[in-house]
Amino acid sequence: MMRAIQEAEQIVADYLADLLTPAPTSAVAPAGAVQVVAFEPWRAMPASEVTRAHDLRYLLCVAAGVRLAVPMADVTHLLPMPPLTSPNTSNPICLGRWRHPSGEARVADLAAILSPDMAGATTTTLVILRDRTWALACVVDEEPVELQAEAIQWRTGAATRPWLAGMSFEPKCGVVGTTALIEWLEKELGT
């Protein structure tokens, strides 16, 4: 049993090393006007389909060349990267705070979450999570995708990166466990 866990951890470590290797990027001119988008797919869906659809849809976020899938059920808003209030910490994970009409969100650098050495990677999008107290700075340039649970290699009892719930091989990306990520951020940055 222990050997199987060690092998699984090694597979995850190898996969992350592959994902964390920066991919070549080309300079892309910013698009014209960008709109703030609110995701509320349940309004147009019968109640019986809400849970099933939310379980399958993921937003593909890119940070320092690494692609991560965030469950759409946990994404409240997307908006172009706004000016932020200076962080009250020297931790590279925290980029600062963003004030919004219903309060304030702490903004975490998704690249620095992956590896502190990657802090400061290019970000264009602010992904507001759940109750709007946390947000991720990253690049989002694709529409949400559906990932079948059977196509994800789920992790259990992970000692490192507890917020990494699993790996998807098509599309190739890590799958984020939002609850574990928020808990990790609150522990890492304090509440």
Uncertain segments are 39-54
Structural class: alpha+beta
Q: Cα distance, first to last residue?
A: 37 Å
**Which geometry do the CA atoms define?**
globular
- Report the count of strand segments: 12
Question: How much strand?
Answer: 25-35%
Number of helices: 4
Describe it for me?
- The protein has 191 residues and is α+β, with helices and mostly antiparallel strands.
- The protein contains four helices and twelve strands.
- The strands form two sheets. It has a six-stranded mixed sheet.
Could you outline the blueprint of secondary structure elements for this entry?
Blueprint: H1 2-20, E1 37-38, H2 47-56, E2 57-63, E3 66-71, E4 75-80, E5 94-100, E6 103-109, H3 110-114, E7 125-129, E8 134-138, E9 145-146, E10 152-154, E11 164-169, E12 172-176, H4 178-189
Parallel strand pairs: 3-12, 6-8
Antiparallel strand pairs: 1-4, 2-3, 2-9, 4-7, 5-6, 7-8, 10-11, 11-12
